[in-house]
Design brief:
- The chain is an alpha+beta fold.
- Helix content is 28%, strand content 21%.
- The chain has helices at residues 23-26, 48-62, 64-67, 123-132, 134-144; strands at 2-3, 7-11, 35-43, 77-79, 90-94, 113-121.
- A 6-stranded mixed β-sheet has the order 1-2-3-6-5-4.
- A hairpin with a 3-residue loop joins strand 1 and strand 2 (7-11).
- Helix 4 crosses helix 5.
- The radius of gyration is 15 Å and the shape is globular.
Length: 157
């Protein structure tokens, strides 16, 4: 965790050492997406309990591929249940928003390493992604800029 004046950043380290399972069943080039690292950026001002809550949540999300024999990739959604927000209980995984830092990693074991940001979304935003795909909500989130880091923001749908 790194905390600045305005934002707190959580990021994983070494998740990419293990390739995600089942990627080869769904992707033509599995080595392009089978290794990931995850991160989340939130507006600062959290209590120690909230920081621990988010850190535990990020750690839990990293285990999804191996606990459920699946994989995580761009546009996938996950639960994001924290003590910080009742409104934003889900998240979309992406590295395609302009406001998000672009993390570049060298490849590992003949695979790319993809960094996906965990961007909290509301139930209404999640439902819109299920109905229309994640891109329409991602486009609206992109328009918010740094406001996406604020768990008190307005919904985009």
């Amino acid at each position: 965790m790194l905390e600045g004046k305005e934002k707190t950043v959580f990021a994983t380290v070494a998740v990419s050492l293990r390739p995600q399972p089942k990627v080869e069943m769904y992707c033509e080039n599995p080595n392009e997406v089978n290794r990931i690292e995850l991160g989340v950026i939130l507006k600062s001002g959290m209590t120690n309990e909230q920081v621990n809550d988010v850190a535990g949540l990020v750690s839990g999300i990293t285990m999804i591929p191996w606990d459920y024999i699946t994989f995580l990739a761009e546009g996938h959604t996950v639960e994001f249940q924290t003590s910080i927000s009742e409104k934003f209980k889900y998240a979309v995984l992406t590295n395609n928003l302009k406001v998000l830092p672009q993390m570049k990693f060298p490849g590992y074991a003949d695979s790319n390493v993809t960094f996906l940001w965990i961007v909290p979304v509301s139930e209404r935003e999640l439902e819109e992604m299920k109905e229309s795909g994640s891109q329409s909500v991602l486009n609206e989130l992109d328009k918010l800029g740094e406001e996406i880091f604020n768990l008190n923001r307005n919904e985009v749908v």
